[in-house]
Amino acid sequence: MADLEAMPEDWSSALVVVAHPDDMEYGGAGAIARWTAQGKKVAYLLASRGEAGIDSMDPATAAPLRVEEQIASCAAVGVTEVEFLDHPDGIIEYGVPLRRDIAAAIRRHRPECVITGNYRETWPTGGLNMADHIAVGRATVDAVRDAGNRWIFQDQGLEPWNGVKYVAAASSPLATHAVDITDSFDASVASLRAHKLYLEALSGDMAEPEPFLRSMAEAVGTRFGGVLATSFELLAL
Question: Transmembrane ranges (predicted)?
Fold first, then answer.
């Protein structure tokens, strides 16, 4: 596989848009920690509250707990602005309502960089992706254009925003770029560990933050100078 290029860092603000609590923490949070340490402003928007993510816990009980864990997780990587939508976890649908919500957030936050999760059909390891990730990632890409068109979603009462320079999808099987997270790796581990209830309900490798994230970072690093790294598919605007 080809070597990865360095992610551009000539921007000052970003909006992260993902489907569930813990999505960005499985890889991408190391980059967020690096960027906030540089003084960049980063906000998060989650399409759901992750209420269907813990098999042993009723959704009504899980939702507020997962929200609390996500806020703590974001704090570990220097992020204090965290917003939640109420699209239903597990059955989030791509469509105009989702695009509308994301476009509104882009208009409010006015980011130069928009970051989402992998929206391709598979993961880099070949396993199948899930529908929520695909729907939210695809809607995020489309909402970047929506947000810049003043004739779309006029009822929001928000000014259009055409200032997005980059759109990046974390952990894509079609990754083109990477970020050195050697100095922010520990923060990324702390960020994932903040999802304590979620991790307790898991089994296997994904339930162990440090070794799981290290193996991912080392694998990406084989294409990026041998450092600990996390990958992104960068879309041209």
Answer: none
Q: What is the DSSP string of 2-46?
A: PPPEEPP---SEEEEEESSTTTTTTTTHHHHHHHHHTT-EEEEEE
Q: How would CATH label the architecture of 5-235?
A: 3-Layer(aba) Sandwich (3.40)
CA-based torsion, 181, 183, 185, 191: positive or negative: negative
> How do residues 88-124 score in pLDDT, each as one tens digit?
999 999 999 999 999 999 999 999 999 999 999 999 9
Using the structure block, give the residue that is written with the tokens 């059909």. 121
Matching residue, tokens 């928007």: 45
Contact, 115 vs 136, CB < 8 A? no
| Domain ranges across the chain | 5-235
φ, ψ for residue 52, nearest 5 deg? -100, 15
Q: Helices 96-109 and 131-148 meet at what angle, rounded to 10?
A: 60
The one-letter amino acid code at 233 reads E
